Amino acid sequence: MQENNNPVKDLFSDNRLALRIKNKLPKLFHIAELESSRAGKIGMEVGSAREKVIIALLIYKYGKEKVNTNIPLTEAETDVIVNNIPYSIKTITGNGGVKAVWTVDSSSAANFIDNYMPKCHIILIQINWGYKKGGFSLIPLQVQKMVLSKLGKEKYLKLPKTGTNPRGVEFTKEAIETMLTDKETLKIDVDWKKEILEYDTYKKWVEYWKED
What we know:
It is a single chain. This protein is of the alpha+beta class and 212 residues long. It has one domain: ECO RV Endonuclease, Chain A (3-Layer(aba) Sandwich), CATH 3.40.600. 39% of the residues lie in helices and 20% in strands. It has helices spanning 10-13, 15-35, 46-62, 106-114, 141-151, 153-156, 173-180, 203-210, and strands at residues 37-38, 41-42, 67-68, 80-82, 85-93, 99-101, 121-127, 135-139, 157-158, 169-171, 186-189. Strands 3-4-5-7-8-11 form a six-stranded mixed sheet. Helix 2 (15-35) packs antiparallel against helix 3. The longest helix has 21 residues, at 15-35. It is globular.
């Protein structure tokens, strides 16, 4: 893949779509949370729901024929392919960590770090309900490689603490901050206001049951 081949950059030069993202993303992510909640607690599946919101945006912009969502489970980083270019979609709430990869045990995590080299552009959404800080960012592959080379793996990736449920390898806060402030990284600021929504999680499924 040519590192400077990055079709999703178009999202940031399309002023009308950028405004649409700014205005609609909080509401759609709020709906994703409501669909992933039970008894007031948000489940782990919210990550997949948010990912679908972003993929739907890409399909809206580029058309279904140019957006490939049929990604093998063996692909640890790629979540979607646009115009034959792979992207990883990552979301972070507040000051939480950004996962580089989900792993099942500490040995898998260590092996991932040993063999790690960035291979796709990152679409990163920073969610900060009640604040303007955060937004929708695109971290190009070349920026990731530059920051990794500058910091080294020990300052770029963070292993889970020994004796805990690993759940994945995270980027360090220093790595994320350095990538987000790079001049090649693109960003749309988002005001994370949460509307009061009368949303029925089961309505669409009931409508499917009604169909002949």
